[in-house]
Amino acid sequence: MANEIAPRVVLEDFPRTLYQAKFFIKNAKDPKNVFVLSCSKDLSQERMLSVPQDSANYLPSSLLSKKIGDYNKNMVELLPFLREQTNCNEICTEEAFNVSFKQMCGFVEPTVVSVRTSGSKEATAAKNNVLAGLVQQGYVSLEVNDLIQLEVQRQTEIGSAIQELLNDGKNVWADPSLIVAILKKIIYSGQDFQDKFLLVGFPDQIEHAELFESNCCTITVIVYTTDAAQPTVEIQGDDLSLKRLDSMFAKQFRLRITHEWNANAFEDMLGKKVQWGIVHGRQFAGADECAKKLAAMVKGKVIDMGKIAEDVKKKLGTEDEPFEGDVPVDKVEEAILEMVSKDRAANEKYMYIFNSWQHATATDFMNAIHGEFGLPNFCIHCTANKDTVDARWKEANDGAEEVPEEAQAEIAESEGKDKQNQEEFKNIFAEANIAAKLHTVDTCTMEAANSALKNIFSAKVLLVNHEKRLDVDTVCSNLAIKYDMLYISVYQLIRQHIQESTAWGKKLVAAKRPKALNDAVRLGEGLDDEYEEAEYSAAHFDMKVVLELLAATMMEKRTNQNFVLLEGLCNQKKLEDDKDKFVTRNMDELFMIEKALGQIAGAINLTYKLDPTEFVCDKFEEFEAPVVEEKKVEPQLDEEGNPIEPPAEQPPAEEEGEEAAKPKFNPADFKWTITNKVSKNMPQVFRDFKGANCVVEEKSSASFADVAAEAISSSLDQFCQRVIADHNSKYIY
Questions:
Q1: Which residues of 219-239 are buried (b: 16+ CB within 10 A; e: fewer)?
Q2: Range of the domain at 605
Q3: Among 269, 298, 333, where does a domain finish?
Q4: CA 480 to CA 558: how far, in whole Å?
Q5: Strand partners for 462
Q6: How confident is the model at residue 608 (pLDDT cuts 50, 70, 90)?
Q7: Against a cut of 0.85, is the pTM above it?
Q8: Is residue 420 part of a domain?
Q9: Do residues 294 and 300 make contact, with C-beta atoms less than 8 angstroms apart?
Q10: Which residues of 704-726 are buried (b: 16+ CB within 10 A; e: fewer)?
Q11: Which of 456, 491, 512 is the last residue of a domain?
Q12: Are 575 and 584 within 8 A, CB to CB?
């Protein structure tokens, strides 16, 4: 290694023992990264079966089993040492190779950012501000055109190859691999503390980005600048059907939209900022319950500093000599930082929800946590009227009939303190220009409070359905940019997880129940579906698992978007078998979507044949006329044989207070529609589901454009625009 000139060296399968690790670190060099890869013994045996027996890497089952046993025995001592003494990264390799390798590269690769613009003068000015801000943050600016000129001037090997292209009358962009080679040489130069780079002027095409990522490293995000004065985000050329670099990154959740430079917001764009917020209120205002409900919604952890202080107190003392007095606040803060660090090291991202603090004032608390985690994501102030607070106090005190004066004084003191806290939070949030993140939730009923929290933190859902021949993927990707939404194609997401053998992929495989699908999921004859919807449609899988996957994806990928564009749900119309259709009911699916993901603000269906929006049933039950049997009454005769007339029947005498007998129910007196095994279609169900505020419209493609592709773009664009504008008062189908 002393003679090695390469800036980076990889040592494989070393050290194997604790002695080797200690000896190497003492006599050679501290490793920058240590990777410990693990998988089950059964998977190791299974993978060995795919290795040719004449390969040097092949081991018979018995030898492999012994090697695994020796490895596990050595790791008992070695792994704790590596965790304590090195930057140890543990990776489970039971997923697909490319997933595990990507995870491993994530620890080694630098942060690479590209800044692009929508093209307007204002957007270009915003881009320049962002570039300047990133340079101030320590990013190394890689101006591609300048680097190309330098290579040519210095007559390096790459420079000579570029000069040959120029001599032949070609442009350097004719061979973008040369540009990637220049960038790779700089990015992996081995310079300490150079792990943040800014790409300027490259890449500009999808092919360039794919070449760079396959031969150099991953582009962390593209920052897309736009004009703040415009109501929507500008799209270059305003062509929604054009597949471009920006739309590809939007679909991969790697595009961030901004109109200004903001250092705190940028850390959030990279996913590096710790997500945290505050839920507070006076005694019995329901703050603790709201914090728990919110944690369940946003994958959160409730941070009760009082409980953490108790845990710290135990560690500061012993059983024989317990710690006396109040735990220093800085010790509590250290415990919180340690917890967050462990979560992030385990690649677990949580929303940390503070519902109490140990500091003297709310301002002191904010200064301390803001200094470590940055600005908060929200502040929820829980309120409840006096009657509710008194009722909760009585319930907490074994159903007491009255609230004593002492308790009333304590509640009043808590109310005064809460008002002071809220006033301090208002001032802090206003000064930081984040007053919009302050929310008040009335908790007089926890059902209403839960609904209010959902409205604040859950995105509004827009459903997109279409026949397969009508392609919407690229249009939806561009619309996600234009209206700053999250776009998820459900079957594409399912396909990705299954092919990569992720934990979600394994859950989906276990929950798959294949069903026959009709032509609505097939392209024209001879055309292949790139994303194999017929194989990975959500219709084949347990809807509960699919929605859990979508909820987890939205929680992980969503930043500040208020709307999510979902393509690939509500697939009843694509099912071939009638039995499957009755099992997968549209109404059930709509209820499940709203419960798991958020309110459905609108839905659109692009089809060659219009569905009737009014449910009309023209079949009615028919009843046969009842057959009345005549009773033959034998005549009564007197002694001489003459017939005697029977006495007239008298109605039974009504008892005092008794109601008159009701007539017997006869179903034939009413009209009964035949609806058994007759299901409503999606527009009919959506109208019933949303009620009076639902607007259901039918429009022909000709009302948007003469060409099908243009009609698809225009109809989806107008749909998104209307839903976003009217989502507080209307639901649009």
A1: bbbbbbbbbeeeebbbbbeee
A2: 458-615+676-732
A3: 269
A4: 12
A5: 565, 602
A6: confident
A7: no
A8: yes
A9: yes
A10: beeeeeebbbbbbbebbeebbee
A11: 456
A12: yes
